[in-house]
Amino acid sequence: MKLARDTWLIFQRQTLLLLRNPVWIFVGVFQPVMYLLLFAPLLKPALAPMGATSDAEVYRVFVPGLLVLIAIFGGLFQGFGLIAELRAGVIERSRVTPVSRLALLLGRSMRDVVSLLVQAVIITVLALPFGLRVHVADLLLAYLLLALIALMTSAVSYGVALLVKSEDALAPLMNTVAQPVLLLSGILLPLAFAPAWLRRVADWNPFSWAVDGTRALFAGDVGNDAVWQGLLITVMLAALAVVWAARAFARSVR
Amino acid sequence: MIETKGLRKSFRSRQGRETKTVDAVRGVDLVVEPGEIFGFLGPNGAGKTTTLRMLATLIAPDGGEATVAGADLRKDPAEVRRRIGYVAQGGSTWDEVTAREELVLHARMYGIGKAEAHARAARALAAFQLTEYADRKCKTYSGGQRRRVDIALGIIHEPKIVFLDEPTTGLDPQSRAHMWDEIRRLRAEGMTVFITTHYLDEADALCDRISIMDHGRIVAEGTPAELKREISGDVVTVGLSRAATPTAAQLLDTQPYVAKLETLDEGGLRLFVDEGATAIPQILRTLDGSSIDLTSIELHRPSLDDVFLTKTGRSLRES
């Protein structure tokens, strides 16, 4: 099938580029590990009123949030690489070939999803000594949710990058999107602390649903409504983002 | 190989709050024959690249029609893509990847199988004398080497026609001569080559036929020899001070041996005459009679610049 083959070609090249730039691998792992080691301990007293008193319970709340955080930010900033590629002329060169436009996007986004999953596994493993315990089946479902988030945010980032075509415009744009999304998703602290009005605003943030879903999965509560709601919302948004960004690849000029 | 009728494209550009429409290409008709090197000559901003990008399916025309390599540009751009190669102006390679990896990937994006892609990459590297550097990263290449990789990429799928957008811009004279040889070799292999250039000598030396483009229109078309022949006789350039130029122009314009006269912006005149050898003494006598001092006088055969000048009223070098 042409789409699968083309996607695989682009994915291979993008992965090669990532591996040839080991700095990014280091940064990608180092940052979340710092959160895990330096921020999570602060949370223990903060989460105590919610009944999370042991290390295991604290990490069960914090690790899923951290993973969603990486998925959102990792994805949203992928557009920078694409702008460099635009400038190098490789996008134009790809666009004169019959290669599938959807594959130009999916090959890149798949690379982002895979690198996110690698990060997620490393963080999960590093959290085990702190007492984090999670069922493998629940964990895999949580990873699926994370993969969909990364697919969505990286597709959005690529689409926007093709529109604005400059790092100077992309950076503030992505930051402006990411900040409220982050604050309103209960990633760092659960929104259970929030006043009612803030929680109502957060209900409109799809990532807030995704965080709830991921937390439920880490808590072993796969039957929780938050799981299917989070998955459904994320699937729909990811599909929209992919369609939109693939169209940007089809018509982008220069 | 290519036939276009009334190809048009305009862009909207925003400056502050105002939106301006720029007509980049305003109705281009052209015919490119199989197996020729066809050149698009014109100053920067004439619409050459826009036309090329339309023919290469990168931007959609606003109007007109075109057949490229037997496929309809507007109805079947996917088929056009399969049959053409395109090499952009600014390069097309990733820094961290080797030429061989680039060639293999590019071939595979055309649907060519893995083994065949490797074989083709090896052949292309040899043909473009790149084998020695094939497994080094592209960022280590010189400008000329990188340009050769770009062109090797553009023809890796053996297209019927290849578009080269200003293939020698930014190259040193030696790499430029080398590139001309490569382009002639493509023609010898039966490929049709469509290049854009703003170098007169390049169009003259390399192209079988050229179209001169200015302000989005084609102003002249033919072989370089035909175009120059359109300007009968010789060209005499007279160097004058700016102050003396208008008087001299007035005097000479009425002389029977001057077929056409152009005033140069920097001072001086360009005269189109039937026979340079007999015209020069007469020019000297006329100017001397009115005590006009000239700084230089030069006789030459008409160049493509003269063609451009007669068609547009200004010199290609100045625009």
From TrEMBL, chain A:
Membrane topology recorded in Swiss-Prot or TrEMBL: Multi-pass membrane protein
Pfam annotation, one family: ABC2_membrane
Assigned GO CC terms: ATP-binding cassette (ABC) transporter complex
Subcellular location: Cell membrane; Membrane
One of the GO biological process terms: response to antibiotic
GO MF, one example: ABC-type transporter activity
This protein's UniProt keywords: Antibiotic resistance, Cell membrane, Membrane, Transmembrane, Transmembrane helix, Transport
InterPro entries: ABC2_TM, ABC2_TM_bact-type, ABC_2_transport, Nod_factor_ABC_transporter
Bilayer-crossing regions: 21-42, 62-84, 113-134, 140-164, 176-198, 226-246
Domain ABC transmembrane type-2: 23-252
UniProt record similarity statement: Belongs to the ABC-2 integral membrane protein family.
Protein name (database record): Transport permease protein
UniProtKB/TrEMBL annotation, chain B:
Xref: SUPFAM superfamilies: P-loop containing nucleoside triphosphate hydrolases
The ABC transporter domain, residue ranges: 2-240
Key words, A-Z: Antibiotic resistance, ATP-binding, Cell membrane, Membrane, Nucleotide-binding, Translocase, Transport
Compartment list: Cell membrane
Gene Ontology biological process terms, A to Z: daunorubicin transport; doxorubicin transport; response to antibiotic
Keyword Ribonucleoprotein: no
GO molecular function: ATP binding; ATP hydrolysis activity
Membrane topology: Peripheral membrane protein
Membrane-crossing residue ranges in chain numbering: none
Gene3D superfamilies: P-loop containing nucleotide triphosphate hydrolases
InterPro entries: AAA+_ATPase, ABC_transporter-like_ATP-bd, ABC_transporter-like_CS, ABC_transporter_ATP-binding, DrrA, DrrA1/2-like_C, P-loop_NTPase
GO cellular component, one term: plasma membrane
UniProt keyword Electron transport, yes or no: no
SMART domains xref list: AAA (SM00382)
Main location: membrane
Assigned protein family: Belongs to the ABC transporter superfamily. Drug exporter-1 (DrugE1) (TC 3.A.1.105) family.
NCBIfam families: drrA (TIGR01188)
Record's protein name: ABC-2 type transport system ATP-binding protein
Annotated organism of origin: Micromonospora pattaloongensis
